[in-house]
Amino acid sequence: MELHLPAVVLVLVLAASIDCASYTEFLNRHVKPGMAASECNKVMTDRKINSFLSCKPINTFIKAEGSVVAEVCDAKGTHLADNLYKSVDEFDVIDCVKKKWSISCEYTGEAKKLRVIVICDDKKKPIHFERVEA
C-alpha cells in the first residue's frame, strides 16, 4: 500500500480540527454571562474569536452560566437528530455582527431572546453552536 504525503497530512489536519471541538472552546466562543451588547469588540478580541486577517461575520454569545447551557444536552433540551439538541427554554443572547465596511473586525451587538441549537458530545456537553431560533 502506497501512502501519499499530502493525503496523510490532510487526514492529520482533519483529525486535529475534530479533536479541537471541546466544551472548553465552546464556552470561550459562545458563553458570556452578563455580557452587554456594547462589549462585542472587547470580548471578540479578548477571547481571540477571529483568526489573523479573518473576521467572523457573526458570533453569538449566550448570557448564561456554562452549566445552565450544558443542560440543553440533557433535561433542558429537545433531541433533534444525532447529537443535535434544541433548548426547551429561551436564552438571552448577544449576536455580535461585523460592521459591513469594517476592515478591522468591528462589531455591533444585538441583544435577543431565543432558543439555541447545539451539537453535544458523548458526555452531554455542548461542543458546537449550530444556530438560534425564535
UniProtKB/TrEMBL annotation:
<keyword id="KW-0540">Nuclease</keyword>
<dbReference type="Pfam" id="PF00074">
    <property type="entry name" value="RnaseA"/>
</dbReference>
<dbReference type="GO" id="GO:0016787">
    <property type="term" value="F:hydrolase activity"/>
</dbReference>
<comment type="similarity">
    <text>Belongs to the pancreatic ribonuclease family.</text>
</comment>
<keyword id="KW-0732">Signal</keyword>
<dbReference type="InterPro" id="IPR036816">
    <property type="entry name" value="RNaseA-like_dom_sf"/>
</dbReference>
<feature type="signal peptide">
    <location>
        <begin position="1"/>
        <end position="23"/>
    </location>
</feature>
<keyword id="KW-0378">Hydrolase</keyword>
<keyword id="KW-0255">Endonuclease</keyword>
<dbReference type="GO" id="GO:0004519">
    <property type="term" value="F:endonuclease activity"/>
</dbReference>
<dbReference type="GO" id="GO:0003676">
    <property type="term" value="F:nucleic acid binding"/>
</dbReference>
<dbReference type="GO" id="GO:0004540">
    <property type="term" value="F:RNA nuclease activity"/>
</dbReference>
<dbReference type="InterPro" id="IPR001427">
    <property type="entry name" value="RNaseA"/>
</dbReference>
<dbReference type="InterPro" id="IPR023411">
    <property type="entry name" value="RNaseA_AS"/>
</dbReference>
<feature type="domain" description="Ribonuclease A-domain">
    <location>
        <begin position="19"/>
        <end position="133"/>
    </location>
</feature>
<dbReference type="GO" id="GO:0050830">
    <property type="term" value="P:defense response to Gram-positive bacterium"/>
</dbReference>
<protein>
    <recommendedName>
        <fullName>Ribonuclease A-domain domain-containing protein</fullName>
    </recommendedName>
</protein>
<dbReference type="InterPro" id="IPR023412">
    <property type="entry name" value="RNaseA_domain"/>
</dbReference>
